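Interim report, section 4.2 (structural modelling).
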Amino acid sequence: MDSTPASAAQDFEPTVRTRIKRLHERGHYDRKTVTEILDAGLVCHVGYVIGGQPYVTATAYWREGNRVYWHGSSASKMLRHLKGGVEVCFTVSLLDGLVLARSGFHSSINYRSVMALGTARLVADRDEKLAALTAFSDRLTPGRWEELKPPSEQELKATTVITLELDEVVAKVRTGPPNDDEEDLDLPVWAGVVPVATTLGEAEADPVLSPDIPAPDYLGQITIG
Amino acid sequence: MDSTPASAAQDFEPTVRTRIKRLHERGHYDRKTVTEILDAGLVCHVGYVIGGQPYVTATAYWREGNRVYWHGSSASKMLRHLKGGVEVCFTVSLLDGLVLARSGFHSSINYRSVMALGTARLVADRDEKLAALTAFSDRLTPGRWEELKPPSEQELKATTVITLELDEVVAKVRTGPPNDDEEDLDLPVWAGVVPVATTLGEAEADPVLSPDIPAPDYLGQITIG
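Predicted structure of the assembly:
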């Protein structure tokens, strides 16, 4: 981890690539907004280029300090390509509501999103990789990592972990009711917001799980979105 | 719309860019699987390249026949860039569950995803644009479009609609319980799936909405995810 406590406390500077021009009030560059969105999400969409063609892959991610991480099998195309160190766009978006205005033009969605640009690199060091995977488990299910079978050296080798330092970053957020034109407010049409949330259902035990093993407490403490 | 009923009924052919090699049992190329995922989602992530840098933008989308559509202000960077007709990667991913295995290595997520590659083009024709926007409203809130203030010519002009024909497409799906190694099945650790769903909350009327306007039936019929 080469992030320092100092850099992790600073806000982000808008760049020509991350400055929001249209609806600029939706853009946020402060550390707190970015961190809260990243820590709420579970799935990111990573964009990368192979031979001029963009690819976008959805994958689970997590944050530690000033870095985000994602992982997968060493064999997957995305990770095979990225581990050389390549330019990526890392995007997290959380859908919060449908904004139904009195005109189609002003109808919208409420959301929280983060876009981070930079060079992703492979986490090559075995101990750093193990620490990152532990952090991922702890983010979702605190305490579970200690219960699991520890990863074998072969499993560690077969798992690629990729990281991106948070440097060129922007958050975009829309909240609140529709913003209809003043002259439309008396139209006889319903307007408002339908909230959207990510919810967790009741845990389903593996059919081959021994009935002697109770559902652990951390199952009720998972939060996403 | 240049898609024909014939092409819209055919399955997709895997290409070198869309053939799933690792965990190939998760890959699907049949029309039904692809269509069901696209029609369940609301937000896509579109990848595109500007000056070698990949960008990934989340935006609402909809499907009509053999095409997907997305839209926004004509002023937005993404759409300004895409309307020339550019290579994109259109990805939709729906999170269905957390798969907690007896090892970190086999822990996973359940999901449905679609990736479509191709050249996105601007919907320039006014009537085609209006038809596409109507279809988007109908997908979410059937019947609402007729209640709304019709879009002005200025609003139509200020709205860019982008489309991608479904041609090079792959769906990826994971379902079911963990796939632990045989020798790990007796470990004293809970294993199973925590289902994840997208849920809609109770509609919140615009604070300035007249109390005489009741909540319409379509609010209870919206489905996402």
